[in-house]
Amino acid sequence: MNIKLESIVEVQRATEQAMKKVIDYLKNSEKPNSETAHKIIDDILNIYNCESPENHIVAGGVQAIDPHEEGFGNLTPGTAIVIDIYPRSRETGFFADMTRTVCIGKSSAKLNKMYDSVLEAQNIAIKMLKPGRKCIDIQKKVEKYFEKNGYKTFGKGKEFKYSEGFVHGVGHGVSDILHDLPRIGRDTDDILKEGDIITIEPGLYYKDIGGIRIEDLFLITISGSKRITNFSNKFEI
User: Distance between CA atoms of 204 and 208, rounded to whole angstroms?
Assistant: First the structure.
């Protein structure tokens, strides 16, 4: 295992520990809130000598319509809660990146369908990962899937400053730079190559329901890809 991969795997395992602890907190607390969740993440990351120079995200309900909203206030059962943790090792300087979306208790049929669609979009992208693949082809395939399944992307409205639907790229490279090349998005000529470490993170965002995003790390291998992330995709907790 090369130093870059070994270092990123190490940070990813710390990220998974932080994710586990924060999900346990959400599941078991009578009145969970974003502020306490953020502190739990920082405390666990600190144990593993990691830090979040750009903070992290625990955003519930309609807050998560903004993919970059860090989250604040109470977290309500029955809504989607986006948890995005992207720490850096203080020792090596390498990052990891992982997102899970969870719902405390029972979710609605509408939320379940949206979650399942994001998970399937991720699976579609994962199956395309291999050296020589044009990143824009992955983006287009995911966009086409969402459109076909009724999840259209809308422009910004007068009453709401964020676009709705699938509003960002499928993924990006991770190294000692959090958002590194290659970029899997709408405006890129990047091509995957063996040894790349990338995220795959499709998401959907609508102002009437909030956001759902799932993100995992992958190593591009000689014949395809290998999953680095080792964490459940359970939605209802």
Answer: 12
Tokens matching residue 176: 């000692």
Q: Tokens in use for 88?
A: 């850096």
**Domain membership flag for residue 41:** yes
The sign of the dihedral angle between the CA atoms of 206, 81, 227, 234 is: negative
Cα–Cα distance measured from residue 12 to residue 231, given in angstroms and rounded to the nearest whole number: 10
Residue of 68, 13, 18 lying closest to 39 (CA atoms): 18
CA distances from 179 to 18, 64, 152, 157, 237 (A): 21, 20, 26, 28, 30
pLDDT in tens, the chain (237 residues): 688 999 999 999 999 999 999 999 999 999 999 999 999 999 999 999 999 998 999 999 999 999 999 999 999 999 999 999 999 999 999 999 999 999 999 999 999 999 999 999 999 999 999 999 999 999 999 999 999 999 999 866 555 567 899 999 999 999 999 999 999 999 999 999 999 999 999 999 999 999 999 999 999 999 999 999 999 999 999
Domain that holds residue 129: 3-227
Q: Look up the pTM and report it.
A: 0.96
- Tokens 């907790």: give the residue: 237
Q: Residue 235: inside a domain, yes or no?
A: no
CATH at 24:
3.90.230.10
213 lies in some domain: yes
In a domain, 160, yes or no: yes
